[in-house]
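Board notes (copied after class):
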Amino acid sequence: MNDDSVTPMMAQYLEIKAQNPGALLFYRMGDFYEMFFDDAVAAAEALDIALTKRGKHLGEDIAMCGVPVHSAEGYLLSLIRKGFRVAIAEQLEDPAEARKRGSKAVVRRDVVRLVTPGTLTEDSLLEARRHNFLAAWAEVRDEAALAWADISTGELRVMPCPLARLAPELARLAPREVLASEAKEADLAAIVTDSGAAFTPLARSAFDSTGADARLCALFQVGTLDAFGTFDRAELSAMGALVEYLNLTQRGKLPLLRPPQKESLGGSMQIDAATRRNLEITQSLSGGRDGSLLSVVDRTVTAAGARLLERRLSSPARHLGTIHARLESVRFLLEQSRFRQELRDLLRRVPDMDRALSRLALDRAGPRDIAAIRAGLTQAGALAQRLSTNLPGLLAEAATALTGHDGLIDLLDQALVAEPPLLARDGGFIAPGYDVELDETRTLRDEGRAVIAGMQADFIEKTGIQSLKIKHNNVLGYFIETTSTHAEKMLAPPLSETFIHRQTTANQVRFTTLALSEMETRILNAGNHALEIEKRHYSSLREETLARSAAIAATARALAEIDLAAAFADLAAEEGWTEPVVDDSRAFLVSGGRHPVVERALRRQGGQPFVANDCALTDADTPAIWLLTGPNMAGKSTFLRQNALIALLAQSGSFVPATSARIGLVSQLFSRVGASDDLARGRSTFMVEMVETAAILNQADDRALVILDEIGRGTATYDGLSIAWATLEHLHDVNRCRALFATHYHEMTALSAKLDGVENATVTVKEWEGEVVFLHEVRKGAADRSYGVQVARLAGLPSAVIDRAKVVLEALEKGEREGSSQKALIDDLPLFRATPPVAPPRAEPKASAIEAALKGVHPDELTPIEALKLVYDLKAMLPG
């Protein structure tokens, strides 16, 4: 490449790159995707691959790196996880076609797909048991809405969503990418980034609600969206932006989205981001799945069932009819253990039909995806035959969606082999007997290979060269190969009249014959023709499958529903969970409640039992608040969390870890537990605590369940006590909600006499021989002390510190009883004097006679008689 000129290939690269400025450009060059200039530098560093150079541009070396096409998905995943977007430019014509335009003609290339976090479809780039949502937020006048889609499954939903509700909803959905108008970037970028999603600003035109209506009608091939529901302008704008972005990233190949479903703001339990984090619903505080509620309760056996479970836990229902229907299904399957096990065995063989359908729609699938549809529909039919006629409502509804696919199953059974290849270009996926022409072509192809073997035998006989072989490569096609020694014989008459020299290598000489060339033509034509026939059938089968996509998607949803009900029943049977009574009261009555995650952790650590506890918040009209006192390590936080999780599980449609439970419908779930800071925003631990507490006090209604732990601990004692005191009064008088309030401020226990709806409870401990024993039992009443010093000893503080702390504590408590001033107390404590007294040197203890006698003893050298004598001698040295 010259310094002063740009080659046609590089000109093409620069043109395509200019059209996709925000993405790394994967530029297809044969069997590699290559990157140049700054893209190459960034990709080489992100992927830890070699950075090289290729020619010059404007006098500077052109940086270059590349990845093989066959392993590109792994590199794509790494780049997406590191925040990159990738534009994939493919070769859109055969190089031979380009050469017809001239020796310097460049193969036509263009971007066929823009890969972003929210638009992944490949199994290798996705988590099978989690959704991959792409969301869009729009605001039109006084209306705002959030739409989200998973293009790998076809789900599309929308809901009203004012800006104040955006952060909690993003926490619920956990989308990978969020779209918004570029005019709103300043307001939304931080909210989106905090949720863990990538923020993508779009032009205002993408959010035009009039154009959105037209785009959606075109997508679903309808004249009006009225059949799907009534959508306001903001909802249309958000959904239209999603479709516009998908059209941009998929380059016109829109995914198979299902008709939009509208959700209401009050349709599910409201849970904010802080509460989700504190309760570790779908991921633990460390960020992984292990240790979360989801990891403990997941007994699903299908990928779709697992995704449905995560949705249910993230969005517990608030409609009693929905909750009761789900619990009824679990109860039905719990009572029929053998039947449940048969269903689960059948479900284990159900592949992920949703994602196979999506890849088919985007033309990124292969024969194996069609086979997955066949397997899933076959298993659905087998399940339908096992389901009885007296099913409860939800299961009966699911059962009706399992059948009606016999025609498609028969077609796919006849057309496809049992285990087809991944890609259509590999061939061999159409079953014998399905197409007569294909069978004849395959016979010709296969017999041709047998003829090649026969020709080799004939050539060996004719030449007398036993090492002669007929081989094949992509450059020469079929050729005869022999060693240089034997080649002289073939180059001389009369063999030279038959064998035509083609190539000489270091150790071999290659020949051909007219007969071999003719046979090669026949074989190649037959093989290519057979592959073309198979590709034609693949396209036909793909179209037949997509034509029934709505029914297949309904079957997939039904299988997920059955899987989740059976999984909840299996969980209840295995763990001894009980069916909750969920009603319209304000009761919260739990008997023998347990924390599912902690209980499992104790079991793994050696089978230590979990101490179950009751919780009885009144169902009367007055507020119901338990003020919980007791020492650290006693289990207050566990008690608070377990009751919040019991409410969440009950409204998710699951049985609960308790002996019995009556849950009055919970509208909102709030948690302020634990200590953390947010240094990136300049927030201290105490500031974070206050912000989260403020959110609760400003939002909680009388149907909310609130758990608060150690409010006010991050500041001075009297400041903290006053804040905690006022917070409890506000929950009681203003929010009038159900709450569990844990505190170390024992002074607050006096509020139970002042506020009708407050009751004291404590986690019990027992002192034995100077040690504190945690009983983990919650009972009515107040704790008499905090046992902080004893807990410090358990933590391993030095004995000197523990002893000194006891002295200070006794002095402070005495001073408080006697009304002494803080200064007087400090003056009385030597620890706080300006110059602490120097401790006298400790005298070294004198060695006893017994110690002196033992110093010279070597136990390994003693005989039994000598050892016995030593014992008698030492006994004689004892005093007295």
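Comment from the instructor: The domain at 436-538 is CATH 1.10.1420.10 (MutS, DNA mismatch repair protein; Chain A, domain 3). The two ends are 104 Å apart (CA to CA).
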